[in-house]
C-alpha cells in the first residue's frame, strides 16, 4: 500500500534521480517495496547500476534481485534483448531455480509466443501445483490474448483454491467492471474489503460500483461507503466528497414524497459541499466557480 | 539514546536498591521482634523515583511512537500498488518502444 508519506518520498527521490542527484538504488528499492510500475525508470537506472561493476559488486546478494527487477522492466518496455541478457546472467548463477524458469516463461509471454509460454507454465505447475504466481501468470496470458471470459473462468477456479488472495479478488473485480458486470464486481469488492477493511480506496471503488448500479438501496449503501472513505481519509479524498453529493441528490430524486430521513441527508450534502469548497479554495481557487455551478445543478429537494 | 539508556540503568539500580533495603529492614524487624506494618519512608521514595526513571527510559529508548490514526499522512493510502502479479505486456509500450538502445554489458 502506498501511503501519503511514501508517495511524497517516492516523488522526491524520482526528482532527485532524474536530475542526476544520485540515490538510484534507494529509488529502485522503494519502487520494489511499493510495487509501483515504473518500467522505463527501472530499466534506465537499474541498467546503469548493473553496467557499473563497482556499483554492482557493492550491492552484494541484492545484485540478483536487481537483475530480476530490471529484466521484468525491460520486458515491460519491450527491450527484449536486455531482458534476455539479464535472464541469461541469472540462469548462469542459479541453474536449477524455479524463479528463473518463471522469468524465462514470462519472456516468452512478452515475445507473444503464448503457446510456448503456456507449455512452460504447465510443466512448472507439474513440479509444484500450488505455485500461486504461476497460476496468476496463466490468467494473465488469457487476459493478454483478449480471452476475457477464459481469464474469468481461470480466475474463478483459482479463487476457489486460494480464497484469501485479495489481489486476485481485486483483479477479478477490475475485469468485471471492464465488462460492465457490476453485480459480480460488487461481490468481488465485498471480498476485497473483507480482507483489507482499512484501505479507503477499496471502499471508494465499492461505492462507485454501487452508485453505477443505481437503485435506492444501492445508492444508500454507496453513500455509506463514500462516508466511510471520508472517515478513513480524514476528508482528504475529493472523489468521495463528490460521491456523497451525487448520492444524496440521486436519493432525493428517487425518494421524492417519501421524505423519511431527508433532513439528515441534506445535512450530509451541505457538509460535503462545504468541505469541497474549502478544498478547492485552498488548492485551485480558479476552478471554484466551476465547482459551485456544478454543485448547484444537483437538486437535493 | 545514550542518555535514556543510562537513566534506565539508574532506575533499575534504584529499584534493586529499594528491594535490598526492604529485605534488610525486614530482617532488622525480625531481630527486634516487631510486626511489619509498612515499608520505611526512604524505600517508598526510592520506589517512586525508580518507577519514574524506568518509565521515562522505556518511553524514550525504543524510538518514537508511530501513528495509529488512519487519516494521518503516514497511514493514509493515496494509491494502490500496481497489481504486478497479473501484469501483461501487450500494451502501448510496444508501439512506443523506447528510443533507448540500452544493452547489458556482461
From TrEMBL, chain A:
TPR repeats lie at residues 166-199. The keyword NADP does not apply. SUPFAM superfamilies: TPR-like. It is a peripheral membrane protein. InterPro entries: EMC2-like, TPR-like_helical_dom_sf, TPR_EMC2, TPR_rpt. Pfam families: TPR_EMC2. Residues 100-209 form the EMC2 TPR-like domain. Keywords: Endoplasmic reticulum, Membrane, Repeat, TPR repeat. GO terms for cellular component: EMC complex. It is found in: Endoplasmic reticulum membrane. Transmembrane segments: none annotated. Component of the ER membrane protein complex (EMC). Belongs to the EMC2 family. Part of the endoplasmic reticulum membrane protein complex (EMC) that enables the energy-independent insertion into endoplasmic reticulum membranes of newly synthesized membrane proteins. This is ER membrane protein complex subunit 2. It comes from Acer negundo.
UniProtKB/TrEMBL annotation, chain B:
Its main location: endoplasmic reticulum. InterPro entries: MMgT. Signal peptide: none annotated. GO terms for cellular component: early endosome; EMC complex; Golgi apparatus; plasma membrane. Keywords: Endoplasmic reticulum, Membrane, Transmembrane, Transmembrane helix. The keyword Signal does not apply. It is a multi-pass membrane protein. The chain crosses the membrane at residues 42-61. It is found in: Endoplasmic reticulum membrane. The keyword Phosphoprotein does not apply. One of its GO terms (molecular function) is inorganic cation transmembrane transporter activity. Component of the ER membrane protein complex (EMC). Belongs to the membrane magnesium transporter (TC 1.A.67) family. This is Membrane magnesium transporter.
